[in-house]
Amino acid sequence: MKRQIPLDAASRADLAQGARQHRARQVAPDLACKRLAIVNVTFFGLPGRPDRQWVLIDTGVAGSAGAIARTAAQRFGRGSRPSAILLTHGHFDHVGAVRKLAEQWDVPVYAHVREHPFLNGTSSYPPADPSVGGGLMARLSPLYPRGPIDISRSLRTLPEGEVPGMPGWLWLPTPGHAPGHVSFWRESDRTLIVGDAFITTNQESAYSVALQRPELHGPPQYYTPDWQLARESVRRLADLQPELVITGHGPPMRGAAMRAALDLLARDFDRIAVPAHGHYVKVAA
């Protein structure tokens, strides 16, 4: 069986529409996402919301601050700043612009306490694992930054249960890809923002990353140090039966076909998601 799970025609059409847009891609009335290089950032808040009435989730790779700020100005108005920046986790492609934006906007940055060592200058992540195979992105992974970065001045701990600046949402611990990885869940419309707990493109392959054909995958193999926890996290998210998922890599997806693919990924995680070999397959970092 192939490791990807193709999605339906509606998802492919949604992807094509997004590719034609230069602004953030609207996926719900109060949610938009923007692809920056290899990763997505998400904007929460209705268009035109005033200063401090919206939230940014993740901050892309280094050098993304200008593009994020321009997109925010286009969506919310010139000079409008978020009430918070939320991090699903602290990997380099999710925190690349966080220091610059936190200082520019004078805004708190929230992350799970288990991610704080990678964000306060204390610890680096475990080495990447190019031995998982799968393509150029995996082979290059030892070159990716492992941190730590130090944003201690802006860093805050996610409060228990609630999500700062996002009423009606909960944060869920979804470790495995990172020790303090979290996802965000809104039950009222069954929307999930999952970071890299699972993704919708084959992140190991540079070709797939460029093409962005919608496919359901487990977390990026070369940067996942605990496959047992990753498996448990995907099963927990599949049990929610979401209607819309926004991932850190790949296009947003929705509907019954997505849920069926997510259920299959959760049921058959070891065969679909876990690499055949690798440093962390049998023993977590």
Description:
- The relative contact order is 0.16.
- Strand 3 (31-36) and strand 4 (39-44) form a beta hairpin.
- The protein is built from nine helices and 14 strands.
- The protein has a seven-stranded mixed sheet, covered by helices on one side. A five-stranded mixed sheet has the order 9-10-11-13-14, with helices on one face.
- The chain has a single domain, classed as Metallo-beta-lactamase, Chain A, CATH 3.60.15.
- By secondary structure, it is α/β, with parallel strands linked by helices.
Sheet-strand content, in percent, reads 15-25%
Shape: globular
Q: How far is the first residue's CA from the last residue's CA?
A: 28 Å
Number of helices: 9
Query: How many domains would you count in the coordinates?
Result: 1
CATH superfamily: Ribonuclease Z/Hydroxyacylglutathione hydrolase-like
Low-confidence stretches: 1-22, 204-212
Q: Can you list the strand order of the major beta sheet?
A: 2-3-4-5-6-7-8
